[in-house]
Amino acid sequence: MKNLRINSILSRRSFLQWALGLAGGAALSPLFPSRPAIAGAGPGKRLIFLAVDGLHPAYLSLDARGFPGGGPGNRLMPNLHKFLEQSLWFPEAQAYLPAATDMNHLNALAGTSAAGHGIIGVWAQPVGWDKKGRAIIAHSALADARDASGRPVDTLFHAWKRQRPGGLTFFISGKEWVADMFRQDPRGGFDLLVTGKGRPDWLPEPEKGSFSDPPTDPDAACDPEGGRQGIFGGRGWGASPLWTRMYTGQGSLLTLQMEHFASRFPHDSWIVDSTLAVFDRQPPDLAYVLLAQCDDGGHCMGSAWDPGEFTAADPPHEPPRGCESRPEWQLVSRRNPRIFREPCLDVIRDVDFQFGRLVDGLAARGILDQACVVLLSDHSAVNHLATDDFASTDIMGILEGAGLVRDGNVYTFSVSSYGVLYWRDRKEQVGRAKRALLAHRAKNPETGETECPWWVLDREEMKNGLPGISLPGELYHRYFVEQDQEQSMIWPDLFVLARNGWQIPVYNGHVPNVGIKAPKWTPPFRVYNGGHGSVDTLPILAAIRVPGGRTGVSPSPIRIADLGVTAASLFGLTLQSANAGRDLSGELLG
Fold first, then answer.
1. Above 90 in pLDDT, residue 226?
2. For residue 509, what pLDDT is reported?
3. In this predicted model, what pLDDT tens digit does every residue of 439-473 receive, in sequence order?
4. Into how many domains does the chain fold?
5. Under a CB-based contact definition with an 8 Å cutoff, are residues 115 and 579 in contact?
6. What does the alpha-carbon distance between residue 418 and residue 502 come to, in Å, rounded to a whole number?
7. What is the mean pLDDT of the chain?
8. Residue 156 is assigned to a structural domain of this protein
9. What is the DSSP string of 46-103?
10. Do residues 122 and 102 make contact, with C-beta atoms less than 8 angstroms apart?
11. What confidence tens digit (pLDDT) does each residue in 130-148 have?
């Protein structure tokens, strides 16, 4: 995508050249599909997905201190690199829009996009209107998903059980609602679903811990964390600015809540321990392991994959007495001066450490020699702009000011950098609403430039695509809109995708990731330091390790659905609903 911010470190071409150089001569093998198949290559006995939620692939280019130029013996994420060296890595991989959690984990397992299942919300989304004209909100549920022909959405778990009914299946998630999305599916397919709250009694309860100062942080007492903005820390005294300020900064209410509710946001160390405990009892044949700490930490601490975003703190950070002062500890984000770089990196260092524990634990148990392992992230993340001007991205405020909302007939469901709008009636106003949003301008606090903070897509653009932004049909569900006529699930009239790090407020109390259920009367406010959902968070980590298969780096520009379709092909599984992916098994084996 044309606005991908990775070019502040290295261009897409130089990033790929770096990745190819990393693997040396082995990287060339995917370029020659006529090469004979490797003797003994095959999918293995087991299929394991390792998902690092929210990881930006640009972290892999950084050295141990978080600067460009990482290499052997000096990497920010050495354990991930070790695994990549044993895999076929796709550094040009992307998710689908919306670039968020629920839909893209499902995309990996069903080989499709949101246009092939209809789940476009995080944690929940509007599905209809009640008799009083109020939006009906339902939690993300596979049971409600349909493909473009109206069929129930099939996943690798369902296909596995059809072909191998005696095979054990296992799903563990650091995000409870993602596992719960599958839990209520009447077709089954999952022998064991584990979350911090929904777990067997032989697994311990997750313990509370710090995102910025995990046990693996050797300088936790010295390195900085940004404070909270506080109620009196900015201009504007309405309810929305005040709530926003409470959630602004690395030491904000968001961080306190997410660290307090450990059962809802278990750190990766608990996921690793629990996964290995499951494999010790009876190794599953199909497993999906969702490590969520990278994403959770990114929301409350921020992201640091782009060294060019950070500048010296003003005033300078003063380390505690007895601590040295390191230049890299002075770096704060140009987008939000309350985001210090070092705690963001400490999150990532711990994510890599725990990933290494998981892979080493599986290897020690003899699992990896028998398994095809798919490594992925579901989206990446950026830091959001911090501004006291709440009106800069207040979608509903703009529409209300233009007289385009009446009697609650417009419902907004939004989070982080994307939002969707539904019209209950007066749909003739949709075109005017789109024009009003596109005419809106706000001053970017990072660049000082006045700009439109978003792209806005109507249904025609959802269907036909918007060049450089959205693929044709990527955000349009043909069945729900055209055949079902929105009886089973309503579909957005407008999609709003934020640009350049802008954050769209949450409305109606729908905050999916803060540890508590916000009341409906909660004013609109901006929740996160870092986030995702729009075009600039499409890049993902993607690699496949097949016993005896090819290793190195592939330049193929793949999508997350390709991972699920490829896994199905490798194991002879048939996905019975429509899929959007392509089979990469030829690159892996032949």
1. no
2. 79
3. 999 999 999 999 999 999 999 999 999 999 999 99
4. 1
5. no
6. 10
7. 91
8. no
9. EEEEEEETT--GGGGGB-TTS-B--BTTB-S-HHHHHHHTTSEE-TT-B--SS-SHHH
10. yes
11. 999 999 999 999 999 999 9
The candidate with the shortest Cα–Cα distance to 259, out of 291, 214, 290, is: 214
Cα 115 from Cα 153, distance rounded (Å): 11
Give me the amino acid identity at 175. Answer: K
Name the E strands within 431-584.
442-443, 450-451, 454-458, 494-498, 530-531, 542-545, 552-553
Q: How many CA atoms lie within 13 A of 309 on its CB side?
A: 25
Q: Of 246, 218, 225, nearest to 234 (Cα)?
A: 246
Phi, psi of 175 (to 5 degrees): -115, 110
As a whole number of angstroms, the distance between CA 519 and CA 549 comes to: 52
**Exposure string over 59-70, b if 16+ CB within 10 A, otherwise e:** bbbbeeebeeeb
Instruction: Find the domain containing 471 and state its range.
Output: 124-147+385-535
148-177 pLDDT tens trace: 999 999 999 999 999 999 999 999 999 999
Residue 518 lies in a domain: yes
Confidence grade of residue 292 (pLDDT, cut at 50, 70, 90): very high
The pTM of this model reads 0.93
Residue whose token pair is 């990731």? 513
Nearest in space to 81 (alpha carbons), one of 358, 389, 281, 73: 73
Which pLDDT score, from 0 to 100, does residue 6 have? 38
Query: Which amino acid, 560?
Result: I
Residues in the chain: 590
Helix, coil or strand: residue 136: strand
Q: What is the pLDDT of residues 506-535, one digit of tens each?
A: 998 777 655 556 777 789 999 999 999 999
Is residue 139 in some structural domain? yes
Dihedrals phi, psi of 277, to nearest 5 degrees: -65, -40
Going from the C-alpha of 559 to that of each of 112, 525, 530, the distances in angstroms are 9, 32, 23
In a domain, 241, yes or no: no
d(CA 120, CA 420): 9
